[in-house]
Request: fold
Amino acid sequence: MSLRRAVKAHGFKDFMRMGFALATSKKITPPPSPKNEDLRRAKVAEAAVIGQDLTQEFEIFCELGKMTTDASQCMVNILDGESQFTIGGAGLPIDPLLPIPQKMSMCQFALSSPEPFIISNLLADERFANSVITKPPINGAAYAGFPLNTPDGVALGTLCIFHAEPTELTDEQIRIMRQLAKAVSDHIIFRIQGANFTASRISAMLGQFQMIAPEGTIAELVAFLDFCAYGTTSPEQLSALQRDGVITKTNETWMLSQDGSELKAKLGLANAGYRGHTTNAMTSGNQLDDLLGEME
Reply:
């Protein structure tokens, strides 16, 4: 854990309070690992939500969870088997790149069952009383963790809440939190499917590209997609695409060759529109995702 990141994320006062709590609290005894822990870890890795800042995507779920239960804090936590990463939160400062050891987390107890893990009074539960969870700056008195279940039967993490006072959730609050947790897991699964679909499409596109340019590379395919959208790409890639035979130069203007036009149609980009540019007009950046979205 980066000391500088921890101080920046929590502030010096809360950082010192956390250090004191850690030094004076009873350690949480970790629960047994889920029976499908290897699969669970693999799915967490496949989700690819750790190591990047996705807080804007997940913050709304936490805000709704906090409002629904009148909690003091709500978080989306992902647990990779060693660490817990908070990728969205409401009611507390978070740093999605700053993990805590999984053995210190409450959410580790919510990974073994598809049902929510709810403790209405942490101070009365011998597993958690006098733990760091119950002391400043967390001050947790009640906890509910709703697992982020996947169709494979694993929990990637939780949508969880903390209350500053012992609290009994109503049946309606639990129902809504279950739905919110499903929405979070569905969002993560959609990200996985989108990434896999994009990779599959790129692979198919590269195969089509190499039928015309057998020595063509993925970088040249990306340059060709840029050219189809903007009529240009970087100077070195213009030369490469000319060698591939997919573009040609006429009167100082680059345009698709016959092979290039046929390839564009095969890739499903025929209706994407093409704005011709002269050689000194440079693309503003690679818009591969936009082009893929326009494919039929």
In short: The longest strand covers residues 155-163.
